[in-house]
Design the sequence.
């Protein structure tokens, strides 16, 4: 069995696909070896792998109750399924993943950073309540006012303190259409400052071959944000915008790049020190170091109150999403470069994203 990273393989002793939270609890109580809860296996460093018991959470995939300001959903459902259910009510989660085919429980366990995180924080910061199976197999409900310690431990906790089986999430009114604007900047510093300054509902950034690109999206907008001089403006339905990665993923699958190893390095940096770090890292990164379909992400955001994320209060996500393409650096060399990059990030107060996991024997570890 492999995950999205494609560099680590493990043969689990057993794979179970529970159909209820009680079955998850029973499996955890009976397990004699490590337990990993797995959604779509989108982890990059083997977090969704074990030689013990794998709980395939995709059997818990129902969306239960949609209200005006909240929705209750099983952990194995994807953000795509959730959005398809809430949009007929003109509601949406305030923060979506860029790629919708990830499970709810997986991204909540990682933290969940999206284009709207500069306004609403992480996905984990928008959770109202959780059902969790603890390491000793107890099925409990928790929230900010009920078993708050457990609630804080499992959000962005990567399964170290329990397996999420169901979540009640905040909803906000969904726009019908969005105005998506792109603008270029010559430096990472100017991109990061623009992400702070520009007033938009969704903000993201990438490093390109010829500079840095900001995407600023205004919901129900008719003109670009004030102070932005975009090179490209596109109006499109909100549903199409939310699912914007689908054509790219299909193209990567067709080219064979989706199945290649992905040595990804993603970290959260203090905003005050991020630009110099990013520019130095990119000067040392050649196209062969990144891969044919590699992407560099830069996103300034506010984490919200999620203690386990351990992110700076004003953070910049920096992601080198490498692909070990033919003719490029081998995956092992890319992974070694990532380790060196993480060491330098830690020295200036950065943290890995998602958080590193230390597995206790027999303890469950949630992975996406």
Sequence:
């Amino acid at each position: 069995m492999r995950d999205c990273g494609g560099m680590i393989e493990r043969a689990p002793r057993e794979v179970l696909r529970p159909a209820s939270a009680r079955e998850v609890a029973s499996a955890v109580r009976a397990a004699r070896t490590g337990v990993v809860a797995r959604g779509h296996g989108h982890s990059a460093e083997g977090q969704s792998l074990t030689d013990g018991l794998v709980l395939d959470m995709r059997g818990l995939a129902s969306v239960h109750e949609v209200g005006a300001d909240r929705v209750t959903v099983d952990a194995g459902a994807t953000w795509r399924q959730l959005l398809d259910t809430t949009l007929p009510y003109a509601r949406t989660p305030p923060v979506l993943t860029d790629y919708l085919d990830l499970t709810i429980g997986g991204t909540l366990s990682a933290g969940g950073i999206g284009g709207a995180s500069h306004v609403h924080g992480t996905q984990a910061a928008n959770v109202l309540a959780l059902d969790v199976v603890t390491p000793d197999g107890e099925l409990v409900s928790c929230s900010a006012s009920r078993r708050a310690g457990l609630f804080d431990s499992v959000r962005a906790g990567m399964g170290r303190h329990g397996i999420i089986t169901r979540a009640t999430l905040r909803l906000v009114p969904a726009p019908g259409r969005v105005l998506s604007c792109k603008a270029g900047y010559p430096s990472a510093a100017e991109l990061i400052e623009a992400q702070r300054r520009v007033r938009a509902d969704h903000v993201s950034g990438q490093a390109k071959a010829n500079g840095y690109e900001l995407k600023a999206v205004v919901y129900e907008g008719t003109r670009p944000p004030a102070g932005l001089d975009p090179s490209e403006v596109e109006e499109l339905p909100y549903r199409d915008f939310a699912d914007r990665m689908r054509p790219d993923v299909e193209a990567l699958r067709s080219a064979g790049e989706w199945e290649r190893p992905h040595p990804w390095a993603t970290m959260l940096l203090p905003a005050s020190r991020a630009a110099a770090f990013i520019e130095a890292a990119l000067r040392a990164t050649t196209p062969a170091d990144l891969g044919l379909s590699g992407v560099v992400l830069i996103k300034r955001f506010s984490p919200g109150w999620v203690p386990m994320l351990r992110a700076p209060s004003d953070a910049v996500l920096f992601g080198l999403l490498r692909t070990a393409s033919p003719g490029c650096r081998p995956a092992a060399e890319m992974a070694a470069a990532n380790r060196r990059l993480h060491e330098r990030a830690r020295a200036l107060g950065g943290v890995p994203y998602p958080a590193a996991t230390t597995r206790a024997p027999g303890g469950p570890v949630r992975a996406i």
